[in-house]
Design a protein that fits this description.
With 294 residues, the protein is α/β, with parallel strands linked by helices. The protein is built from 10 helices and 13 strands. It has helices at 3-7, 31-39, 57-66, 83-96, 119-124, 217-233, 243-253, 259-266, 272-277, 286-292; strands spanning 18-24, 45-50, 70-75, 102-107, 110-114, 130-138, 151-153, 174-180, 184-187, 194-196, 201-203, 207-211, 281-283. A hairpin with a 6-residue loop joins β9 (184-187) and β10 (194-196). α6 crosses α7.
């Protein structure tokens, strides 16, 4: 935060109430671990929108709603994908119904990490309206569960480096936003930004998230086909929105791609040594160690 932003920043909140919003569809392989992890990370509750899950995700969500971890579970039956509208709805409920001071807008494959061990104490020191937190893609392990992954994408590939397929993992790390609810106006596509009444922001040095976007061959294919069908059904969306989903969905529909081959290309299976050499991929066992702890 700049000196100017500091002096016009908001009063600190001694014990901020933090609510996470979560939009899911068919995440049975990861959703329970996500809920258990964040329930122990100073999250005061979750508001979840379930978009037509049919793989057991809904049953897991209902269990955690009964346990009080999930404050509200919203059914979204629309075949079209409208992430911005659905997350906006959850943020307004977090603020107006549950008194949230901060919202963390997440996906089931995103795990938020605070170096201090406490999100609440970190946010209690902030005077910003929104906090930009780096998001790092994790590559799926060759064997074992997704959480055993240690290969982390920390920088985009050099311009001279050519990838053989649609690049969904090896781009420059993005940022996600933690934001106050007071002064909130509108969330941006993918939760990568937020419109507030002011623009007092900071970049976090202690909060980051690990993104397990692709976890297995089967999950990769299901995610691309479901996402592609949903984004194509939203006639109000632009071609740039969900472009990777459209690429794989259309390629599958026309028989122009083989998903097994595409998976190996997307995760850099044959180029991993070089990706490590150029510093794109580094070893980061942070989450593996947390998950493996008794």
């Amino acid at each position: 935060m700049s000196i100017f932003s500091f002096f016009r920043g908001h009063p600190r909140i001694e014990r901020p109430k933090i609510i996470m919003t979560l939009l899911v569809r068919d995440e049975a392989d990861i959703i329970e671990r996500h809920l258990r992890y964040h329930a122990g990370l100073d999250i005061d509750g979750l508001i979840v929108t379930d978009h037509r899950s049919c793989d057991g995700t809904r049953e897991i969500l209902e269990q955690y709603q009964k346990a009080g971890v999930i404050l509200e579970l919203i059914d979204e039956p629309s075949p079209a994908y409208d992430q911005v509208a659905w997350v906006h709805r959850m943020i307004e409920r977090a603020r107006d119904r549950y008194g949230a001071d901060y919202c963390i807008n997440s996906d089931a494959d995103e795990f938020w990490y605070a170096a201090s061990g406490s999100l609440r104490s970190t946010l209690a020191r902030s005077r910003a309206s929104k906090i930009h937190c780096p998001s790092y893609n994790m590559l799926p392990p060759v064997e074992g569960e997704f959480w055993a992954a240690v290969d982390c994408v920390r920088r985009g590939v050099p311009k001279s480096f050519t990838l053989d397929s649609y690049n969904v993992l090896f781009h420059k790390p993005t940022h996600k936003i933690i934001h106050r609810t007071q002064g909130y106006r509108r969330i941006a596509l993918g939760n990568h930004g937020v419109e507030m009444m002011d623009n007092i922001s900071e970049r976090s040095k202690t909060i980051r998230l690990y993104h397990y976007n692709i976890r297995s061959r089967e999950q990769f294919k299901r995610k691309m086909l479901q996402g592609g069908a949903a984004i194509e059904a939203n006639t109000n969306s632009s071609e740039k929105q969900g472009s990777h989903w459209r690429y794989f969905y259309r390629g599958h529909q026309t028989g122009q791609i083989d998903f097994d081959q595409e998976f190996d290309k997307v995760v850099g299976r044959y180029q991993l040594a070089e990706l490590r050499r150029v510093g794109c991929v580094v070893t980061d066992p942070t989450m593996r160690n947390i998950f493996a702890a008794p």
